[in-house]
Design brief:
By secondary structure, this protein is of the alpha/beta class. It has one domain: NAD(P)-binding Rossmann-like Domain (Rossmann fold), CATH 3.40.50.720. It is built from 11 helices and 13 strands. The strands form 4 sheets. The chain has a 7-stranded parallel β-sheet, sandwiched between helices. It is globular, with a radius of gyration of 19 Å. It starts with a strand and ends with a helix. Bound molecules: NADP nicotinamide-adenine-dinucleotide phosphate. The site of NADP nicotinamide-adenine-dinucleotide phosphate has 25 residues, from helix 1, strand 5 and helix 5.
Amino acid sequence: MILLTGATGFIGGLVLEALSTKNVQIRCLVRKPARSDNPNISYMTGDVLDPDSVLKATAGVDTVYYFIHMMGKQKEREKFDILDRTAITNMVRACKKNGVKRIIHLTGMSDPHEKLSHHLASRKEVEEIIRSSGIDYTIFRASVIIGRGGGAFEILDVAVRKFPVIPVFNWGNTRVQPIYIGDVIRYLVECLDKKETLNKCYDIGCYEIFTYKELMQEYAHQLGLKRIFIHIPGSWHWISSLVIGKMSTVNSNVVYWLIESLRNNMVCEPNDLKKIFGFEPLAFKESIMILSH
Ligand SMILES: NC(=O)c1ccc[n+]([C@@H]2O[C@H](COP(=O)([O-])OP(=O)(O)OC[C@H]3O[C@@H](n4cnc5c(N)ncnc54)[C@H](OP(=O)(O)O)[C@@H]3O)[C@@H](O)[C@H]2O)c1
């Protein structure tokens, strides 16, 4: 039995779709009641902040997919790290009590030598709690995921489509290694059957490294849009997240914290994923071509 958390979210929703074609029993832990016609899929109502519901949800489970974050849901912006810590602590405790064998998690990529943004520091903390739990894990770390509905991609999309003149603040030279959503889902689902990924963490990204400015330039180019980029010193974090938050479909708190994270480089450490999974993530240009069709 698999327990899928975050099944109503961007990543969890797509993992559920992919898992539903396999012959596995999936229990989704959701906050609002739901049902499925697929006999392999069941829903359990609960909340990761409530230890009892997490204990109930993990009973009889072998593997937990952990795709929770709390950046968007709170009125008090500063509190999400405390909530995320509580949630993963509840999950790890429940997994231990119920003898869950493995946790599969997707998180944000970060450079250990940099001072991390609030968002990435919190992601790192959740990752560390999983790694030190004593439960087997597989953790993937991504930067910008290229896919409709992904927070970072939607911000990129709004910035490039809506602004003929794009201000580039002091994050313009931050380096990032994007990845196509289909490839992220493949890693997350196919790792289930790959024992060699147990107790491993992998940075995942395409082979190209861009600065954020180059990423916007390339995206504009792919969309056939002429854009002017103007360098402006400073981060202008508040004002840019306010403007983008109003224009995009992404929750404004999530926009705020993602824009704060633009200062942190997200470049992959080398790994042996190609050997294990037999594929390489698509190039950025190819990802955009797929999304445009
Ligand atoms: N999206 C990206 O571009 C990206 C990039 C790198 C890494 N990641 C990682 O991928 C993971 C999933 O992110 P996502 O983009 O899929 O997030 P998302 O779309 O915002 O989904 C978050 C999920 O968490 C659930 N949730 C929040 N609080 C909960 C609670 N108290 N109890 C139960 N469920 C709760 C939400 O359920 P409700 O529907 O009830 O709110 C939702 O299903 C995160 O670890 C993130 O760091 C994402």
